[in-house]
Amino acid sequence: MTYAKTSAFTEEQQQLARVAKALAHPARVAIIQLLASKTTCISGDIAAELPLSRTTVSQHLQELKALDLIRGEIDGLTVCYCLNTELLRQVHQQFTAFFLEASSTACAPGDACC
Amino acid sequence: MTYAKTSAFTEEQQQLARVAKALAHPARVAIIQLLASKTTCISGDIAAELPLSRTTVSQHLQELKALDLIRGEIDGLTVCYCLNTELLRQVHQQFTAFFLEASSTACAPGDACC
DNA sequence: ACAATATGACGCATATTTACGACATACTTC
DNA sequence: GAAGTATGTCGTAAATATGCGTCATATTGT
């Protein structure tokens, strides 16, 4: 984004693409799953569970945070990341609307339109 | 992918990331929406409706086709693209499972874990 | 204050994506 | 078969993403 002639697409399309991009890397998918399953969500612990350097994981965390999908709370020396469940539910709805629209299409292989 | 230390993540995580990456550009989101709404799905028509060159659109179409999200049928001189609704429904379920897992997490801001 | 620790920011190398013009191919029509 | 049309492939430039080491900063414990 901010690369494409991005302004020519609807805000809705851009929003969906933005979130999709956030999930477009297995590490970020893994991070979200980790935050969902673990009760400890300390930055260092997250990095320790992933096959990437601490620096790289931190970068992925910042990307998720930039979209507000996760939030970080500083607790003394450590930082605790938590999922923004509100937003995730909202995003889920957006994706569902998109997929429903797409999977109940009038244009399928073999149809008159093809 | 095939960039990350990709093998270290689960196939499930990689699959989700792969599909997310396919949706990570507004043009590809737009293409899917177009195919869902229009009854004509001819390559050239698709390109004409997007603010990108025909070549670029063709490239995006190939990316979606590579994941089998869309399928192209050659009809003489033109090529008709259609959504793979089966796969889209499947992918929708994967995303739903992921989002449900994520949005019903035990770790929320203010919780004991943070 | 000092040493130890946890994190993020910065800089850099490499890989991938994006966008597009030019070219090649295949089919249709004349 | 020649001319025209619709598509995809290729090559290439510019923008981004990815991964990681090193450094700067902030906090804790001594």
Layout: helices, strands, pairs:
Two copies of one chain form a homodimer.
Chain A: H1 11-22, H2 26-37, H3 43-49, H4 54-66, E1 70-75, E2 78-83, H5 85-103
The first copy, chain A, binds a DNA duplex (30 and 30 nucleotides) through residues 1-5, 25, 27, 42-44, 52-56, 58-62, 74, 76-79.
GO molecular function, one term (chains A, B): DNA-binding transcription factor activity
Pfam families (chains A, B): HTH_20
Keywords (chains A, B): DNA-binding, Transcription, Transcription regulation
Instruction: Please outline the major beta sheet of chain A.
Output: 2 strands, antiparallel
Give the uncertain stretches of chain A in residue-range form. 1-6
Overall geometry of chain A comes to elongated
Helix share of residues of chain A? 55-70%
CATH class of chain A: Mainly Alpha
Number of helices of chain A: 5
Q: Indicate the CATH architecture of chain A.
A: Orthogonal Bundle
CATH topology of chain A: Arc Repressor Mutant, subunit A
Q: How far apart are the termini of chain A?
A: 32 Å
Strand order of the largest sheet of chain A: 1-2
Beta-strand percentage of chain A?
5-15%
The H/E string of chain A reads HHHHEEH
InterPro entries (chains A, B): ArsR-like_HTH, HTH_ArsR_DNA-bd_dom, HTH_MetalResp_TranReg, WH-like_DNA-bd_sf, WH_DNA-bd_sf
Protein name (chains A, B): ArsR family transcriptional regulator
Keywords (chains A, B): DNA-binding, Transcription, Transcription regulation
Domain HTH arsR-type (chains A, B): 8-103
Provide a concise account of the structure shown:
Chains A, B: This is ArsR family transcriptional regulator. The structure is a homodimer of 114-residue chains. Chain A has 114 residues and is mainly alpha-helical.
